Amino acid sequence: MDTTTSPAPAPGYVHGYSGREARRLGDQADALAALLHDGTSFPAGSRVLEVGCGVGAQTVHLVSRSPGARLTAVDVSAASLDQARARVAETHPGASVDFVRADLHDLPFAYGAFDHLFVCFVLEHLPDPRAALAGLRRVLRPGGSITVIEGDHGSVFLHPDSAHARAAIGHLVALQAAAGGDALVGRRLRPLLTAAGYEGVRAAPRTVYADGSRPELARAFTLDTFTAMVEAVRDEAVAAGLSTPADFDRGVADLRRAAAEDGTFHYAFFKATATNPA
């Protein structure tokens, strides 16, 4: 089922909507599925809303882990929804997912329409994540649950350490802030959910650590996910006067160096769950 409403313009998405970005999102979701989705499954027949499904990178894992749930996936981008629909059709033929184009601030659903909400890598792009979380309570039934997952670029540690790599990451953080987002939002999940009126909030880090003993993880996350994300904002960072081309390229090279046999890379995602007061 596909439903279209007239969404408001989306906040600036610093990563862009290129095919390369869609592949990066898919690589990230697949590499981290066990880490991020562990403990998340929804009962058969339950009504689940994925808020900000994007290209469906997480949608396919929700379908896989909760095959009997009634899943609705919403996003503001029609092009992203087309990719999400195709991704689900390819990986889970016959799966029943309702794709709806709408702004998460103005969802076309009735009060208490869903039993569970899943929000992954969405808050980082919003100028007021607390207000967004508070607004989502309208479509979540009393006693229903919300699961939120976000990253935190301030959690990066790497070896060999590199001031250039840390600066390049900082430029991405600055660009995302200029677009109205917060690349450090992971550390704020518990206070945000509490301030938005949810109860029973529980939050904890989900740590990614890659070294020479985990070459596949180093490739899939350190290189294809994180370094690719930083590298993608090179031209924007240079144009904004945040870096010279040479300095930014040195930072990217040093991030790649951390994926070598004798390198290490650490990153923390944060996952939180809470309930809508009865």
Q: Gist?
A:
This protein is an alpha/beta fold.
Written overview of the protein:
By secondary structure, the protein is of the alpha/beta class. It has a single domain (about 20-275), classed as Rossmann fold. It is about 40% helix and about 25% strand. The protein has helices spanning about 20-35, 60-65, 80-90, 130-135, 165-180, 190-195, 215-230, 235-240, 245-255; strands at about 1-5, 45-50, 70-75, 95-100, 115-120, 140-150, 155-160, 200-210, 265-275. Strands 1, 2, 3, 4, 5, 6, 7, 8 and 9 form a nine-stranded mixed sheet that branches. Strand 3, helix 3 and strand 4 form a beta-alpha-beta unit. The radius of gyration is 19 Å and the shape is globular. The two termini are about 30 Å apart. Mean pLDDT is about 90; it is low at about 1-10.
Topology:
Blueprint: E1 2-4, H1 19-37, E2 47-51, H2 59-65, E3 70-75, H3 78-91, E4 97-101, E5 114-120, H4 129-136, E6 140-151, E7 157-159, H5 163-178, H6 189-195, E8 199-210, H7 215-231, H8 234-239, H9 245-257, E9 264-275
Parallel strand pairs: 1-4, 2-3, 2-5, 3-4, 5-6
Antiparallel strand pairs: 6-9, 7-9, 8-9
H and E order: EHEHEHEEHEEHHEHHHE
Which percent bin holds the helix content?
25-40%
User: Structural class given helices, strands, pairing?
Assistant: alpha/beta
Total of helices:
9
Distance between the termini: 30 Å
Shape: globular
Q: Provide the domain count.
A: 1
Mean pLDDT: 91
- CATH-derived architecture: 3-Layer(aba) Sandwich
Number of beta-strand segments: 9
Computed Rg? 19 Å
GO molecular function: S-adenosylmethionine-dependent methyltransferase activity
Pfam families: Methyltransf_11 (PF08241)
Keywords: Methyltransferase, Transferase
Organism: Actinomadura chibensis
